[in-house]
Amino acid sequence: PESFPPLRNEAAVHVLRGKMKGIQGHCNSCYMDAALFSLFSCTSVLDSMLFKPFPLCDRNVQSILRDEIVNPLRKTGFVWARSVMHLREQLTEKGQCSSFTNAEKDPEEFLNLIMHQILGIEPLLKLQSGGQKEQDCYCYQIFMDKQEDLVVPDVQQLVERSFLSSELKLVEIPSCFIIQMPRFGKEYKMFSKIIPSLELDITDLLLDSPRECCICGDVASLECS
């Protein structure tokens, strides 16, 4: 089957805007629909998931993901719910979890299953908290307490404050930084809106990264939270 590159600029607007666009929802699939759209519609960073024969790679799941979901999304801007259900049925079979076809899951659970257990991809992030041992993971979920001064925050503010409150640092620059926005189910939303940051400055989030002193402009020797 023919493969299609991610949508960019005017092409993205032309293909993705309008009715019957995006990934059709069905049976609590919203967590997976949103994740797949974010990972593949307009970026090629994770296209290795579609083509590369990883050591543990399940080629059937890989072909469903590529040919039934990503290529139609990039070609026509629309994916039928039955295609996502086909993937969910395979995840249920491979993940030994019977509820992947009907229940809402945490996106992190979906990403861990498909990236680690099914495709065998190395973790994308290396994090360290308060000088402890490194942690490997595939995505980062923002956790933070309610802050009155943040009414309509952007992603940059949320990531920085979340890292600060958890005493986290990135051990190295990630090839792909998947971030889950803060959420608390159907009853309570911490923020009614979040502004997407089109670029993310991770300078202050990197472990042992040389940075400029905010007073004299030389290389800083101390960091104040």
UniProtKB/TrEMBL annotation:
GO terms for molecular function: cysteine-type deubiquitinase activity. Residues 22-202 form the Peptidase C19 ubiquitin carboxyl-terminal hydrolase domain. InterPro entries: Papain-like_cys_pep_sf, Peptidase_C19_UCH, USP_CS. GO terms for biological process: protein deubiquitination. Pfam families: UCH (PF00443). It is found in: Cytoplasm, Cytoskeleton, Spindle. One of its GO terms (cellular component) is spindle. Its main location: cytoplasm. Keywords: Cytoplasm, Hydrolase, Microtubule. The keyword Glycoprotein does not apply. This is Ubiquitin carboxyl-terminal hydrolase CYLD. It comes from Chaetura pelagica.
